[in-house]
Design a protein that fits this description.
With 126 residues, the protein is mainly beta. It has two helices and eight strands.
Length: 126
């Protein structure tokens, strides 16, 4: 077994996303505990999460359901809050419905969506 020698992050060091962020604009419905709370707009998404613009104010670590037209309901957890928006992590990373949406939007296959330009790896071996 080899240890990772270095991984240089070339974007926001607080970023925890896996996969490439895809800019999109899709209306969503948001629910918590089976209760519909309101609407929002998906502004970008990756296989691991998304940024949702909304007037709703929910605390970090809230579990919610994001309903996306033609995709379905995706369970998520809020990982970051900012005024007018929050970032979520999908509870089921790289689930088939989000991968299909990203493939449809980008025209690229799933393996290309996993590579994240936010990382460059130097001297790594497995």
């Amino acid at each position: 077994m080899h240890a990772i020698k270095s991984a240089e992050r070339i974007s926001d060091p607080t970023e925890h996303r896996w996969g490439q962020r895809v800019t999109i604009e899709i209306p969503v419905r948001l629910a918590v505990g089976g209760r519909k709370l309101g609407r929002g707009a998906l502004r970008n998404a990756s296989i691991s999460g998304a940024l949702i613009e909304t007037a709703l104010e929910l605390p970090v670590f809230s579990n919610l359901v994001v309903s996306i037209p033609d995709v379905g309901d995706l369970e998520a957890s809020i990982v970051r809050c900012e005024p007018g928006r929050f970032a979520v992590e999908w509870r089921d990373m790289a689930c088939s419905s989000i991968v299909a949406l990203l493939e449809r939007i980008t025209g690229r296959q799933a393996p290309a969506l996993v590579e994240d330009a936010a990382f460059t790896h130097k001297g790594m071996s497995c």
